[in-house]
Amino acid sequence: MKSKVAVIKCDSYDLNKVYDAISRAIELIGGIENLIPKTDKILLKPNILNKANPKKAVTTHPAVFESVIKILQEKGYKNCFYGDSPGNPMSPEKIAEVCGLKQIGDKYNLTFGDFNHGKTYTFSEGKFTKRFELSNAALEADSIINICKMKTHALMRITGAVKNTLGCVYAFNKAMSHSKFPNTDDFGKMIVDLSRCLNPKLHIMDGILAMEGNGPFSGDPVPMNVIIVSTDPVALDSIFCRLVDVEPTSVPSIKYGEEFGLGVWKEEDIEVVGDYSDDLINKNFKVSKEPLNADKWQNLALLRSFFIKKPVIIKDKCVKCGACVEACPIKDPNGQNSTEYKKNIALYFNNENNNESKEKETPVYNYKNCIRCYCCQEMCPAKAIEVKTPLLGKLFIYR
User: Fold this and answer.
1) Cα–Cα–Cα angle for 6, 250, 207, nearest 5°?
2) Using one digit for the tens of pLDDT, what is the confidence trace for 35-80?
3) C-alpha to C-alpha distance for 96 and 222, rounded to whole angstroms
């Protein structure tokens, strides 16, 4: 059977419009009651990357979140809760409040799940990795509804349905997964196995206002005017790619998603229903289309700084808050400001001569240790970090 993907036009976050669009999409792919038993404890998993106004297109919009809750409650689903594990060390529930999601959860009497604690879970069917540090919230759920956001991503090219499951890994383990799987291909394989492990029953993408450019946090909002729904996250993400004129197999989570049996990406294996048409395609959507063929340089520490993409801090924009330093997974357990310490980390405040100067300094990269996970860029509240390609990389790799 083909994987069904519903693409529904929706040009605003008016609650009635969003509710109608999501309701129609779910019915077109079979109806919620045929997908999830009413007796299940359901985790609603939005994208709560970092604290941001919904207008910035960083997180799942409250109107999308509320519409999903309304649909479930009207159909008689009574055991739902929600949450995510953001990259910011701040309380996940507090970040949800800044993003306007906690207010919706409170309105419908939904509790915020435990994303601060968890345990190691063994997934024996993993193709690439079999161990994950899953949050208690994910472990408690019988079913997961993945309410993702249409955005670009510096490492993975796009972040959509498959990538959004990383938020079920709790606390600092999210960042540490980048150091464990430092190259793009391995990280993509891990994400696919994680999605296979969690097996969300339904995926709903908020693409009404998407993010292009320097995503997933520092990009620019752009209207795409769509809600996309499917039970197949790979098929959904491949339709996302086609809407922004990107080759689906250039995204590791899509390429390995089909290879590992998570879903399908080929057009002949997908039945698109609803409002899909060529006029929805945005060929000017700002997203990297360069070949992802730099992984072979990752282990060549002395050369990679001259060839592969790297995060760069724009000093005029930097507010010296330290969010990037905190987010970096390459840390020295003996953290201190010393020459030896700086040899073992990737990003630090250069204040060894004056410990009081931390607020006045711009953080400094040790690119020899930088694994190009772009966690720093992802968490920068000032949008002061950009991913840039060195000249030699432009000439010999990203062609």
Assistant:
1) 35
2) 999 999 999 999 999 999 999 999 999 999 999 999 999 999 999 9
3) 22
Burial bucket for residue 399 (CB in 10 Å: 0-12, 13-18, 19+): exposed
Tokens 């249409």: give the residue.
Answer: 150
Sequence ranges of the chain with CATH classification 3.40.50.11440 = 3-280
Q: Give the three-state DSSP class for 267.
A: helix
Residues 185 and 84: their CA atoms lie apart, in Å, by 24
Answer yes or no: CATH 3.40.50.11440 is held by domain 3-280: yes
CATH 3.30.70.20 positions along the chain are 295-396
This prediction has a pTM of 0.93
Q: Quote the Cα angle for 280-282-287, to 5°.
A: 140
Q: Considering only CA atoms, which of 138, 130, 26, 129 is closest in space to residue 82?
A: 138
**DSSP H helices in 128-183:** 136-140, 173-180
206 phi and psi, to 5 degrees?
Answer: -85, 100
Does 356 have pLDDT greater than 60?
no
pLDDT band at 358 (very low <50, low <70, confident <90, very high): very low
Q: Does residue 355 surpass a pLDDT of 90? A: no
- Percent of the chain at pLDDT > 90 equals 79
Q: What is the pLDDT of residue 203?
A: 99
CATH 3.90.1210.10 for domain 295-396 = no
| Contacts of 362 by beta carbon, 8 Å cutoff, 6+ apart | 313, 315, 318, 320
> Are 261 and 125 a contacting pair, CB within 8 Å?
no
